[in-house]
Amino acid sequence: MRVVVPFGGDSPKTRLAPFFDADERRDFALAMLRDVLDAVESTGNDPVVLTDRPVDVHVPTILDDRPLTDAVNDQLGGDDPIAVVMADLALATPASLTRLFEMEGDVVAAPGLGGGTNALVVRTPEFVVDYHGASIADHREIADDIGVSFVEIDSMRLAVDIDEPSDLVEILLHGRGRTREWLDELGVTLDTTDGRAEVVCHRR
Amino acid sequence: MRVVVPFGGDSPKTRLAPFFDADERRDFALAMLRDVLDAVESTGNDPVVLTDRPVDVHVPTILDDRPLTDAVNDQLGGDDPIAVVMADLALATPASLTRLFEMEGDVVAAPGLGGGTNALVVRTPEFVVDYHGASIADHREIADDIGVSFVEIDSMRLAVDIDEPSDLVEILLHGRGRTREWLDELGVTLDTTDGRAEVVCHRR
């Protein structure tokens, strides 16, 4: 199955600014993207990066600088099943993605924390995406309106996307690959001295 | 299987103070507890509430006012498998709990966001808990030290515990039962006008 991985290459991950400068955030986003591509490839499927600017990866890329919703909808509508997996799912593993890809349903979705839609499998040409707002609820409605089944996977690894400093806790607790190594190299560690897990960056 | 549900009845959920007063927080915690008990019973297992003060539920209770770790460890150590499921897992469903209870492993854990351990199945008498700090990492280590297997379930429904106002978003998006009704009655709704899902309480 073709697996589209949207990637915003232009000033990504701005909410991590308290921890990383613009170049670092770009490096970090790229580390996550590459880990996601590896995880997708390990499931035996074919990732392609949908990006708004050229990006150095070892898989095919599609350049499209329109907003996310428009760019993804342009990839949908064909007869073959297709998946959309966000590039910042740093906890995604081959096992969690395999579970997603193998779930039955016209549309299978991985809800993100806070109402996003972190991943989709689309097996019907009529379905369209709308990533604005609480998109998981919108996607449920869109499927309902066109009369196709909508199934949600219960996965923490696919629910966590990395946007804010507090999300880095999850990578330090459960992550691996380039993303984890990148954080380790920058001296980002877990601090549990006050009884709750927080992230600290020893460099700053 | 016996399923211990620890419940802190004394001033629960203080981090929800921006939304609810003390009486409301107690009501809300009780609604979540009862939903969790129902979900556990639906799996065919036997819940018992481990609480620091008398609580009005339809299942057996054990009164123990020691700290969580001590009170839970007092329940472990027997020959029969036992589970520990936190009372604030408002998204837990019979399906997610069944998946947890049926997973193989000497110790099976549901990691909570931020490093907690939201649920455990313990099939070995030597295992003990330690809920302080990033307990999921500590529990991994404890299992490793005594040479038993430690398996983690990948479940968003078991990863989300309800502590802060932002957690309420998940109930409004994915919850049901008494907890959801309680929020609806208090006028707590989702606001997505700025493109992200936030919770607002129309009463205040």
Automatic annotation (TrEMBL), chains A, B:
Keywords: GTP-binding, Nucleotide-binding, Nucleotidyltransferase, Transferase. Pathway: Cofactor biosynthesis; coenzyme F420 biosynthesis. Its EC number is 2.7.7.68. The keyword Nucleotide-binding applies. It holds the Pfam family CofC. GO terms for biological process: F420-0 metabolic process. GO terms for molecular function: GTP binding; phospholactate guanylyltransferase activity. It catalyses: (2S)-2-phospholactate + GTP + H(+) = (2S)-lactyl-2-diphospho-5'-guanosine + diphosphate. Homodimer. Guanylyltransferase that catalyzes the activation of (2S)-2-phospholactate (2-PL) as (2S)-lactyl-2-diphospho-5'-guanosine, via the condensation of 2-PL with GTP. It is involved in the biosynthesis of coenzyme F420, a hydride carrier cofactor. Belongs to the CofC family. This is 2-phospho-L-lactate guanylyltransferase. It comes from Haloferax marinum. The lineage of its organism: Archaea, Methanobacteriati, Methanobacteriota, Stenosarchaea group, Halobacteria. The gene is cofC.
